[in-house]
Amino acid sequence: MGQAKADFDMVQGRGWYSIDAFVCPDCVEDDFLRILIRDNAESNACDYCGATVQQNIAAPIDVITEAVARAVHANFADPAEAGVPYESAEGGYQGMTFDTDEALRRLPFDAQDNLFEAISDAFTNDLWTSAPGGHWLGSARHDVLRDAWEHFVLTVKHESRYFFGAPNRFVAPELREFSEPDIFETLADLVRESLIQTVPAGTSFFRTRYWPDPPDWAPDVANMGAPPTELASAGRMNPAGISYLYLAFEEPTAIAEIFRGPPAKLAIAHFKATRELTLLDLNTLPDRSSVFDDDLRHEREAVLFIEGFAEAISRPVTRDGSEHIDYVPSQVVSEYFRLIFALGGEGNGSRLDGIAYPSAVRPGGRNVVLFPTRVRFEREFEQVAFESSWELKLATWADAYAAIR
Quick one: three-class SS letters along 318-364? Predict the structure, then answer.
C-alpha cells in the first residue's frame, strides 16, 4: 500500500505515467530527441515502427516522455492552476483551453502517429492553457522582448525621438523591465553571445552608383565612397546629415541594391578591407535549440527574439515619402552600436566597425554598413581602401538578370 501510494504521488507530481515500451530515433523528427534516444538505447527493437536490428537502437519511451513533458509544462498549464477565470454560468473557463494533443502540436512534437498517441495518453492532465511562467497571462521571454522592441519602434517613430529613455507613463507594466534604454542593454548581451563576426583583412566589398551618360563625375574614391555629410540623405542605418559607408560583400548584391530597371549605366567600385573588421552580423543567426532541450531554453528564447529583430531591421522599406520615418528605429539602433556598445561590456573593450545585414532585394546577398572611424570636417572610413572601378551597362532585363543572379 505504501509503495502504491508513493508511485501514485510520483506520477501526479511529474504529470505523466510510465510506459513499458521502446522507441527508436526514426520515430521522432526532433534532433535533440533523436540524440536522447541514441544515447539511451537498450533494445534492438522499436515498439512503434517495428524496426528490428542486431544492435541496440531503441530507448525506453520514458526517456523522451520526460523531455516532452518538461516542454509542455514550460509552456502550458492546467487552467485552474494557471489562474484562468472560471464562470459556470458562462460556460466554463474564460480563456482559451485545449487538449493534450493540441498542446503537443503547438510545441511542435512531430512523431509516428502511434507514438504521438501513446505520449499524449501518458499525461495525467488533458486540459491546458498557454501559461509561460505558470500563469495564463504570462508571456514567454522572447514575446516580452519582441513587444518591447515593437514599443520602442512606436516610440521613436511617433512619440519621442530624442528623449525616449525618459519615464513614460504609457508603458505597459509587463514592458517596463525592457523599456528604453534597457532594451539596448538586453540586445547588447544577446549580440555579444552570438552575433559578432570578424572579417579578415583583404576581404572584398562593392559599391554601385548610377552613372550619368555622358558622365559628369569620375568613379574615383571621392565619388564612390561615402557621400559628404552635407549630401548624406537618410538611409536604413544613418540619419540625414550623418554619413555611413554602405557596401555589399558581392558585386551582384551591390548592383541589385540600387538597380530599378533598364536601361541603366552604372559605376561599380571595388574596395578591400585594410585590416580585420569586427561586425555585428545579422546574416548568420544562431540555430534555435530544441524546444525539448530544457538546459538551453533560455538560449532558445534569445534566438527567437534575435530572429525577429534581424527580420525587422532588414525589412524592405517602401519609398513612398515616409521612409525617413520607417528608417528611424534602425538608425537609433545603429547609433547605439556605433557610439555606446563595447565588445567587453559598457566602457570595456573595442568598438564595432559596422553592421552586416541581409539584402532585402537579393536573397542570399549580404550588405555591410561601416561606421566612420574619425569624425572631422569629413568622415573617414579607414576600414577599407578603394581598389578600382568600372562601368556596367544594363540595356535589358536579361542583362540585369545576368548581372545580379
Answer: CCCCCHHHHCHHHHHHHHHHHHCCCCCCCCCCCCCCEEEEECCCCCC
